[in-house]
Each structure stands twice: as C-alpha cells, then as structure tokens.
Amino acid sequence: MARISFHDLAHAYGPAPSSPEHWALKPMTMTLEDGGAYALLGPSGCGKTTLLNLTSGLLTPTKGRIEFDRVDVTHKTPEERNIAQVFQFPVIYDTMTVYDNLAFPLRNRGVDEATVATRVKGIAGMLDLSSTLQKRASGLTADGKQKISLGRGLVRSDVNVIMFDEPLTVIDPHLKWELRSKLKELHQRIRRTMIYVTHDQTEALTFADKVVVMNDGQVVQIGTPVELFERPRHTFVGHFIGSPGMNLINCDVRDGKAVIGGGEVATENAAKYKGGARTLQLGIRPEFVKFSSEGLPVEVTKVADAGRFNIVSVQAGNQPLKLLVPQGAAIPSGSAKVAFDPARARIYADGWLVGDDARGAAQ
Ligand code: ATP
User: Fold this and answer.
1) Does residue 153's CB lie within 6 angstroms of at least one atom of ligand 1?
2) Per-residue pLDDT tens over the stretch 139-162
3) How many CA atoms lie less than 13 Å away from 47 in the CB half-sphere?
4) Does residue 322 lie in a domain region?
C-alpha cells in the first residue's frame, strides 16, 4: 500500500507547450492517502486517463514529480511501481480456467501454491466466482469475464495501488449497481489504496471516500461526496454533480450584497467578494430553492415528475432555474416567487467560489 503524492505534476503530449490548452494535465499538487478509495471524475477528454497513466508509469510527465511513500518514482517503470490495473475491457486468458486466471498474478511472482489457493478462493468468494473456478474463462459472459479482471487486480496483497479505468463499461446495467457495491465492500475489507476512473458521478460517489473532480486538464476539487454536493468550489463541480445540477444565475454584487434583476438576494459569501471578476454567478442547488410569498419573481414553465420529487423549471427574467419540490407539495402555475436558502446560496467569480482560500488548489 502507498501514499501517493503528485508535486507540480503536468503533462503535454506535444513538444514545447506554450499555452494552457497544450496541457492535457495542467500543473497540480495533491496527495492520495494510504489505503484511501479515490475516484477521478470528469467528462471525456478532461485528463483522467493521462493522470492514471502518469501514476502507473505508462507515461513520463512533462514536468513535476510523483512519489509513492515519499520515494520518487517519476522515472520508474510500471513494474517497479508495483501496481495492479483493471481496464475497461476484460484482460484474461480465455483458454485457462477461472482459477488459473486469478492465480496468474500470484504464480507470476513465485507465490507458493498454498497461499495462491487461499487468496484465489478468498477473492472468488467475494466476487461470487466460487462456483465457476474450474470452468474455462471462455465460457463466461462479459460480466463474468470482467469480474475475473477485477479479481486479478485485487488478488495480490503486495501492490502499492490498484487502479480501475472505467471498469464497469461492459457490465450489464442491472449488474452495475451490484458490482459497484461489491467493490466498495472489497475496499473496506482489504483497505488498499484504490483509484477509480469514471465519467459517471453515481459510480464515483458510491465507490470513493474522496472524489477528484477534473475538468479541462485541471483538478477543480477534491472532496467527499457530501463536500462536493454541499460546497462546490467551482461552478463546474456544482453543475456536474447532482441531478439536476446546481443552478447558476448571472448576478451583480453591490456593497457586499448579491443583486439579481434589481432585487437583493441573501447569500453565504457575497460580503467576501473583492471585485475584479469578469463573470459573477449565484450558485444554488435545486434542493434549496422554494416557492415563497416573497422573493425573486419567476414564471413556471414546466413540471417533470421524478418520483419522490417534481423537477420544476422556471424562468427568472431570461434566466432558467430549477427547483426540486417534494411530491404532494403545491406548485403554482404562471407567475410566482422563489426564495433561496441563504446558507446554501453562494457567489462564484469567474467560476470559482468567492472567499475560498484554496481556490483552484488540489491539496
Ligand atoms: P476519456 O474519458 O475520453 O478517456 P480522459 O478524461 O481520460 O478522457 P485523456 O484521455 O487523459 O482524457 O485526454 C486528455 C487530453 O489529452 C485530451 O484533449 C486528449 O485529446 C489528449 N490526448 C490524450 N492522449 C493523447 C495522445 N496520445 N496524444 C495526443 N493527445 C492526447
């Protein structure tokens, strides 16, 4: 197991990067604690695989340093880093039995057969593969094969980190939930450092203790699922996490107060705004907007049934806004007013949370 730290790490695929868009990964410094379950979450092209490949040693960074337990591994090979990696598609030997597939990473390192048997049976039990151990891997479904891949990643006890690159892509939708919970349970049992790459917020939030949110080659926030929901440091995090995502409304800040359409709106942090931003937005999650007798005038445009809640779309002037209204609660039609929970309404200047000391930093 290892504590992994990145120091001013950055990567560009082309030579001589000279402008921000040349960097697939922009300079970042962060530490992943020993034994933690982390997810790298972000849209396609944001740099997740680049960061994963830098960690595994498949790529050498353009600048910066990577340490495993304070030892510099930046120029070490993947073998020297001693990691296990599970890819999107199953990597298994079709002609071997399930048992031999799971045993392979251990036998490869000269582990004695008694230990191999104990570990293989343990992992097979955790992944519900026990009844298939003597079958050929070729006879298994895509789900079964990917379970073997997961098992091969998890079977060794000596790895520094186990990395999963979108491992549930080939899994049948109804089994995804089961395997996600299984992985979480496995992490709790074996307490190895794990990094799970995904663009799916549900996968990230169910698996990880801490989620590293990336956008456009940049780490924008590291936090627990609750922190990302409660206090997004960047509008991207607010919008990307949550369903529907955080509302963003263009606003002004005058004398330390947020102003929308000429009316003042109480927020948690407008008083901390020091000026100079190109764009100012108020961020508020749909959960914390309510219909009210006093507040921002809106027009109700749509009501969508989402089970326990209705998602209500309104327009505040030319700005769209969503509310989550519990099933059974009254929903006005036409003109109405909405109020924001002041403790949950926050001002973002050029995308970043106003008054946040760790602006843009990934620690
Ligand atoms: P996805 O979810 O689609 O795999 P990602 O978040 O993993 O995306 P990366 O694959 O790390 O993103 O890509 C980050 C950026 O680097 C993208 O702009 C991509 O086009 C670019 N990139 C990735 N691999 C290479 C490469 N081998 N050569 C040049 N550019 C690359």
Assistant:
1) no
2) 998 889 999 999 999 999 889 999
3) 26
4) yes
